[in-house]
Design goal:
The complex is a heterodimer of chains A (232) and B (701). By secondary structure, chain A is of the alpha/beta class. Chain A has five helices and 13 strands. In chain A, α2 links the parallel β5 and β6. A seven-stranded mixed β-sheet of chain B has the order 8-10-7-11-9-12-13, sandwiched between helices. Chain B has a seven-stranded mixed β-sheet with strand order 23-25-22-26-24-27-28, with helices on both faces. Chain B is of the alpha+beta class. The chains are: A alpha/beta (232), B alpha+beta (701).
Amino acid sequence: MTLGKYIIPTEIIKLVRVGIVVFPGSNCDRDVYHTLQYTGHDPTYIWHEDHIPKYVDSIILPGGFSFADRLRAGVIASHSPIISDIQEMAKEHKPILGICNGFQILAEAGLLPGVLLPNGKQGFMCKWTNIITHQNKTPFTRTLDRGTRIPIPVANGEGRYYVDDPKKLERNGQIVFKYEYNINGSTDNIAGVCNEDGNVVGLMPHPERGAEPDINPYDHRPAMAIFEGMVA
Amino acid sequence: MQHVRESLGRDPTDTEEAIISAEWSEHCSYKSSKMYIRTIPNKAPHVISEDMDSGVIDVGDGYVVTAHIESHNHPSALDPFGGAATGVGGILRDIVSAGTRPIAILDGLHFGDISTDTHAAWLLGGAVRGISHYGNCMGIPNIGGEIGFDECYTKYALVDVAAIGFGKRDRLIHNRADPGDHVVLLGGPTGYDGVGGSQFASAQMDTQDRSAVQIPDPFMEKMVMEVILQVRPHLKALKDLGGGGLACALSETADSLQVGITAHLNNVHTRNSDMTPAEIVISESQERMLAVVDDSGLSFLTQACSKFHVPISVIGSIDDTDTLRVYHNNDVVAQLPVRLAAHAPPIMWPDRPAITPESPFTPPCTDIVQVLYKMLQMPDCADKRYIYSQYDQEVGIRTVRRPGLDASVLRLDNGRYLAVSLSSNPRHCWYNPYHGTMGCFEESCRNVACVGATPVAMLDHLQFGSPEDPETFWSFKESVRALSDYATHTGIPCIGGKVSLYNETDSGPIKPSPAIMILGLSDVNHRPSQPAPGHKIILIGQTQNECGGSIYHDIIQYTGGHCPRLNLDASLRNMEAARRLATNDMYIHDASRGGLGMAIMRMCLESETGCNIDLRSISDVIPARVALFSESHSRYLVSTPPDRLDDTLAMLQNTDAPYSVVGSFGGDTITFSDGKHQYDVDIEKAGKIWSESLERMILHG
């Protein structure tokens, strides 16, 4: 199968029906939709007050400012009606990915460990950085080698990851991505984590913003692999 | 009001007076400027000229790009966060009201000298946070713009915001209305904030009236935008509520659709229950849109509003009269002929050529190396990354080329690329408003050409002091003449713009500050190879003794000399040569603020390599400091790998553009020499000064 000039190995071609949850204030929903189509999947939008249709295999919570980040980023959205459906899917070991605000929502909903704190003095921060793949047993990192460097942009105001016991996360294999350089004071350079079962993943950087050659000035292939390698 | 009294044959009511004074303010009516700006060429086959809130061009394959520019200067000078944020909100609604989705924001910021003035630093910090807050929350990338500093903006602020939209041509909202259609107000509630904002913006700032500044709510705007984009096929007409609030929206809608409107103010959803009818009509509360819909459109719109929790009220209806009738508590509080309300009588101001600081003198010799280091530190030239990093530049996944050097580039859905640049140069415009303005026009075109795109449309934002001052008004007219001449010569149509007059401070009018935005199109995403050691540097264009109004003169605090003149033929010829090289993946950067010296240092700093430049190859008649710091137009620097040098020179020979090889990249210093003297700038030290100075000034004053 060929998409543009990139050849996708046949063993990973499996159309995944991905539900993109749209909250009021989500603003990366359309970007994720585009990237999923680009990587050969079948995306659909799901409004946060609706139920998740049965045919959906996987869920992505996109970035944005759900409910304008009022109170605390992600906290209001974590009480949306759709969250109970997402919790069910998590129990059924379905792949769930939270990007940026989506990660904040999953952390607020208790589906992922740790919290995301304000960045401190610098406030909102948009820049390109590298993250390193630390765990490749999740449905989103399975085609990446451990140690793979991913050039990727971050853009957030509350992206400083904090967790009380990073050693426990490390022991459980729950640290999925680490920043190459600690850009925002996150505990142990953590950029992304997963739940104990490994099917729910959250990360602060935006892989959908680095998954195509036009928009990634460095190397789009690793970020593209996060979507391309997805299986349900 | 005399004219109104005569036309009505009676005294106007309070509400009528409020409507008229909002609609007839300079800000809304353009009564001083309209007849001049109409002279700027605005037609081309790809321009869709309709009466919309934003300019529209056809970019092929059934797609359109919309664009608009305006400013929020008076509010930002009082409350930089709120003023700048609501400026972004207003410009985005202009894009949405054409039925297109905003895909980018640019901003042009001008403040007092932040290196000495802590108030100016506070204003800049606040404005940047406001723009960042609103744009980030809306999910619209900020892809660039320009920043300038000058003492003429002390205690004041120019906050220009521009936005770009993208959509399908067949989904544009072509404004129309039929009798019986509903007039609907949707979005945030109407409150006391921003009451009388337009009149406030059309007078000198002599009050500290913060209630005239509106309160930003990007979340409401995001919801309003999603509602509108979802139901756009069902909307018959759409108008953003900006300056002049309901008063302007109602009278301008009625006027442009040639219908009458009956409105009931009790139906308007308000934030405060005790507002008078006059306050309701002139409130400039943000995040509101006025829509005209038929019965089925209304039900779609109401449904969408309830999904997104956007307040909506049916405030009136369309009729076939030519009257704007406004009711409050069942009483008629205003009954105005639409033509009278929407058309302020034009004012002719006298003009007189201004005495400008141009002179035939040149300043004495200076320590060139010192000037180069100082230039890197000047807020005008320093690295702007500290500001850009607060803006989301990537959301929307269209950003191909980020803010920094030359134009920014977005990809479009039809595989084409849109290059955008915004430029201004108040120092040049102060020396010579005609050549200064033309220079801004060319500078934006140069930036677009540097990335290999062809300029296809221009938007202008003309910011001047009070038109009542004959010299200021003369410079305004000169500026318009320059735009007309350059647009005529290049065939680049003006698709929109804005005039902002009465920009005055305690020490008088601001310098003439036109800001020019250019949109360019390219079929390919060009990826030039970065300058690297060994690459040759070619200069296209001629360097004249034109240091008047330059950064160099600013540094040595000298006033005099001539500002750069533009030669129309050389402009087109050199631009085409540069664009052709860019499409062959050559790395091109134009020389502008700070002249060749700054342009070369920028290229070195971006690519972290030194260089060696022979100043004799630039000109053998002008002294080194002039060669380095003159800001002559139509000049481009090309970096070419040594194995492509012959190709590049051959290509240039075919263009008739003057050029010379001036040096090459490499080494740890940026070195300029003229045979007798050598001037060295240490690349590491230069990089540190350049990248740290702006943040230090904003945070620590």
